[in-house]
Amino acid sequence: MLTTRTTLTRFLIEERRRHPNSSGEFNSLILDVAVACKVISRQVSLGALAGVIGKVGETNVQGEQQQKLDVIANDAFIRASEWGGAVAGMVSEELDEPYTLPEPYPKGRYLLLFDPLDGSSNIDVNVAVGSVFSILKAPHPGQDATAADFLQKGVEQVAAGYAIYGPATALVLTVGRGVHEFTLDQTVGEFFLTRQFLTVPAQASEFAINHSNRRFWSPAVRRYVDECLQGSAGPRGKDYNIRWVASMVAEVHRILTRGGVFLYPRDSKDPSRPGRLRLLYEANPVGFIIEQAGGRASTGLTPVLEHQPTAIHERIGFVFGAKDEVELIEAYHRESYPDTDESLDIPLYAHRGLFRSGD
Ligand code: AHG
Ligand code: MN
Ligand code: MN
């Protein structure tokens, strides 16, 4: 019986009772985000029937071709969250500059940062996509947020979550007390609690990396992957399995379900890009979730949540999942490798230049 299940609303109200001075704005913001996710879920599930498949012919600030669903999902997040008085501004993957609330709407105490549609390249092949969001406190409540207001370390997040639009739509959330999964009943139109206090086992035997980038990897990443591929005959002493969905949310969901490790490391493919994934609305929210689940989230060398952002669309190397595996990858990055690595003729990697702490 669904009535015996905990709804997202009930979960949030019961969490709020732990904080007697809270205003309820925070809960209303999360519920507004959940509405956006339901709208996006509906559009994704209708696919070609809703005319939402395909490109719009514009390039976003990331230099990527926008898909129709990128735009629809971005609008859904903004429309659902701008009116309620909880946010002072928003940052989206799809917008060059922070979104300023239009005049009639009061500015609130929180900042909302989001990747409205993650895994865009999977839309037209009907593979799971998702949305990712992060909530920070606004340094200047009641005023329009500036770009600088969003440049807070991941450890400052008060909530983070993602929705995955797969065979089922699920919302996975942390408000700083564990990670919880809510599954959408499409008919009732409600998210119901389906798993609580998700954990990531410290060990793993499954890893995710886009292997086509191999020639651009650092020696440390090559070493880690090579050792996994050697399986039970190699130094790791066991066989590893590979998965690559190309939707980060789907990789996070798998790792929260059956463990594993994910790498999208900084590489030399485009030296002007210090990684593929974006810090503020991809790596930080996923990092918060993974750490709340007992896993580890890293730039490859140091905890991602401790990284000081310098730009709202900053990219970063990102490795997360099983704690022991991530620590091993960090340890490999701390070692030096000979300049003369015959298979990696990339000056960028001489000594440890690419991954020096503080770079
Ligand atoms: P987005 O669709 O928001 O731009 O993000 C796509 C990201 C992420 O979901 C995934 O892990 C990665 O890009 C896929 O990268 P490849 O194209 O290298 O597989
Ligand atoms: Mn993304
Ligand atoms: Mn996106």
Explain how this protein is built.
Mean pLDDT is 93; it is low at 340-348 and 355-359. This protein has 359 residues and is an alpha+beta fold. The protein folds into two domains: 8-195, 2-Layer Sandwich (Fructose-1,6-Bisphosphatase, Chain A, domain 1), CATH 3.30.540; 206-334, D-Maltodextrin-Binding Protein, domain 2. It has helices at 8-16, 25-46, 68-81, 219-229, 248-258, 279-292, 323-334; strands at 55-59, 65-67, 87-92, 110-118, 129-137, 159-165, 169-174, 180-185, 190-195, 206-208, 241-242, 261-264, 277-278, 296-298, 315-316, 318-321. Helix 2 (25-46) runs antiparallel to helix 3 and helix 4 packs across helix 7. The longest helix is centred in the first third of the chain and has 22 residues, at 25-46. Helix 4 links the parallel strand 10 (206-208) and strand 11 (241-242). The protein binds 2,5-anhydro-1,6-di-O-phosphono-D-glucitol and manganese (II) ion (MN) (2 copies). The site of one manganese (II) ion has 5 residues, from strand 4.
Main sheet? 7 strands, mixed
Query: What is the β-strand count?
Result: 16
Supply the helix-strand structural class.
alpha+beta
- Helical fraction: 25-40%
Question: Which stretches of 5+ consecutive residues score pLDDT under 50?
Answer: 340-348, 355-359
Q: Domains counted in the coordinates: how many?
A: 2
Terminal residue distance: 53 Å
Number of helices: 7
Mean pLDDT: 93
CATH homologous superfamily label of the largest domain? Fructose-1,6-Bisphosphatase, subunit A, domain 1
Strand order of the largest sheet: 3-4-5-6-7-8-9
Oligomer: single chain
Q: Which CATH architecture of the largest domain? A: 2-Layer Sandwich
